[in-house]
Design brief:
CATH topology: Cytochrome p450
Order of helices and strands: HHHHHEEEEHHEE
Helix content: 40-55%
CATH architecture: Orthogonal Bundle
Structural class: mainly alpha
Largest sheet: 2 strands, antiparallel
Number of helices: 7
Number of domains: 1
Low-confidence stretches: none
Bound molecules: protoporphyrin IX containing FE
CATH superfamily: Cytochrome P450
Strand content: 5-15%
Mean pLDDT: 95
CATH class: Mainly Alpha
Strand order of the largest sheet: 1-4
Distance between the termini: 35 Å
Length: 214
């Protein structure tokens, strides 16, 4: 599958090198004509990264978010009664499910965290899901509460390499969740929640399929 994707994006980049058009890849190719930072293969790699990083993560938050709201009818009712809550609901669902749990970093200076010394150059594995359930930051962290006023979650990681597509993801999630429940107010699961095939062992947490009815 990776080879097919690479072939597809290889052809796409070749076509856009000839006729860029006004989209993210086209603009990158035009800018690169001046800077010459990337060769053809690097551009194909960037196109694949945008597709892979952007698709599965967001799709997973959509499926988990729908199930999370259906399992918490008071939260869903609050959202449908006040669609203005959608941005907050999205932040809370992003925190609550933390679909990418692990990121890797290298310490750029000596630091101490909770009495543990980390030396410059050490590799560090960070558990975003744990940080997002820190009860000193999010009171009652295991509760889904779309009206939380404080949001310092790290679902998109932190620092210079935090998620490039986070605002696009937020927008997609807002549109999907508010449109779906407005159009299908009787939406409900067609199978018990415990029968849903959760992606327990994937890099990105999610659900393989969510059968619904209305
Ligand atoms: C809910 C949806 C998303 C979540 C939870 C998410 C999460 C993350 C996280 C945690 C990272 C940091 C990974 C690391 O440092 O190892 C990251 C990086 C990245 N994300 Fe997302 N992402 C989402 C959507 C998107 C979308 C829609 C795009 C693009 C269209 C995207 C593109 C990227 C890229 C290119 C990086 C690498 C940034 C860099 O290394 O400088 N992501 N994302």
């Amino acid at each position: 599958m990776i080879r097919e994707l690479r072939d597809y994006f290889g052809e796409l980049v070749t076509a856009k090198e000839a006729d860029p058009g006004d989209d993210v890849l086209g603009r990158l190719i035009v800018k690169n004509r001046g800077t010459k930072v990337f060769d053809h293969d690097a551009l194909v790699g960037i196109a694949m990264l945008l597709q892979l990083a952007g698709h599965e993560t967001t799709a997973n938050v959509i499926s988990l978010g729908v199930v999370g709201l259906l399992q918490n009818p008071d939260q869903l009712a609050a959202l449908t009664a006040d669609p203005g809550l959608a941005p907050q609901a999205v932040e809370e669902l992003l925190r609550y499910f933390t679909v990418l749990d692990t990121v890797y970093r290298v310490a750029v200076e000596d630091i101490e965290v909770d009495g543990v010394g980390i030396s410059r150059g050490d590799g560090v594995i960070l558990a975003l899901g744990s940080a997002n359930r820190d009860e000193t930051v999010f009171p009652g962290p295991d509760r889904l509460d779309i009206e939380r006023s404080h949001h310092g979650h790290v679902t998109f990681a932190y620092g210079v390499h935090q998620c490039l597509g986070q605002n696009l993801a937020r927008l997609e999630l807002e549109v999907v969740l508010s449109t779906l429940f407005a159009r299908l107010p009787d939406l409900r699961l067609a199978v018990p929640v415990e029968k849903l095939p959760f992606k327990e062992h994937s890099d990105a947490y999610g659900i393989f399929e969510v059968p619904v009815t209305w």
